[in-house]
Amino acid sequence: MTVATVDELFTRERRERAGDRTALIDATGREYDLHWLCTTSWKAGNFLRHSGVRNGVTVGVVGTGPIGLLAFFGTALLEARTQFDPPTDRAADESFRTLVAPVEVLETGGYELPPGAQRVGYGDKPTDPDVHNFDAGLWSENPSFPPVSIDPDTALLTDGDRTLSHADALAAGRDVITTYGLEHGDRVVVRESFSDLRAVIAGVLAPLLADGVIVLAADDTEENEESSVESDRGGYVVSSEDESELAAEQIALERVSLSE
């Protein structure tokens, strides 16, 4: 797929043309179609806009489930950059605008944020009035998003040391597709943290570009991870470990090239 910026992966035309195909499978095996992914990403963008997310700011995202991905996609639609699993002390970073994390993480006070930064929680219902309820916002937000025109050089992802633009990230995703021969419908299981930019490229952007399926492996047990991969025989697994015992083809992180 030829796209210049990530928002072009979530257009109304694309949703209507291929909205019924599976685009995402979570760690429990629940499937989400492209129609849901597009619509709920638009809702995420609309909600995060109320938290001051805009071009030039950073949004921290804690977690690798569907909600974390929605926060990333919504942030991209607003021309802001995402940092997955950011350091807990961001008090000195004035560009850090919003932290999206499980409510229990936010309400334990483990993160130091700059003045004015917003906390957006998901999972449990917040008891702290300063924590915005992301789940409720996704349910009630406007299910549409105005067309945007994003400069391909706009920052999309950062790990604190390196920042990738939309153009950089999509070029790297297309390189993964070419290297491994990803095709329509191929399932890509992600076994790495999204704090590694290469995991986002190979495990999220590449399957989206190829009209494939993002599969989120379970975090905690080898048994659950095995079942996620074995159920997707003939697919791919993104990992830095030796996965030669699995039926899926490995996409090794060290082979994912990022533009300089």
Secondary-structure topology with pairs:
Elements: H1 12-18, E1 22-25, E2 31-33, H2 34-49, E3 58-61, H3 66-77, E4 81-84, E5 96-102, H4 103-107, E6 118-122, E7 131-133, H5 134-140, E8 155-158, E9 163-165, H6 166-180, E10 187-190, H7 197-209, E11 213-216, H8 222-230, E12 236-239, E13 249-252
Parallel strand pairs: 1-11, 3-4, 3-5, 5-6, 6-7, 10-11, 10-12, 12-13
Antiparallel strand pairs: 1-2, 8-9
The count of DSSP E runs of length 2 or more, i.e. the number of strands, is 13
The largest sheet is: 6 strands, mixed
Number of helices: 8
* Residue share in helix: 25-40%
Instruction: Please report the distance between the alpha carbons of the first and last residues.
Output: 23 Å
Average pLDDT, rounded to a whole number, is 91
Beta content comes to 15-25%
Poorly predicted runs = 220-234
Tell me the overall shape.
Answer: globular
Strand order of the largest sheet: 2-1-11-10-12-13
Explained architecture:
The protein is α/β, with parallel strands linked by helices and 260 residues long. 32% of the residues lie in helices and 20% in strands. The chain is built from eight helices and 13 strands. The strands form three sheets. It has a six-stranded mixed sheet.
Report a brief summary of the structure.
The chain has 260 residues and is of the alpha/beta class.
Keywords:
single chain, alpha/beta, six-stranded mixed beta sheet, five-stranded parallel beta sheet, 8 helices
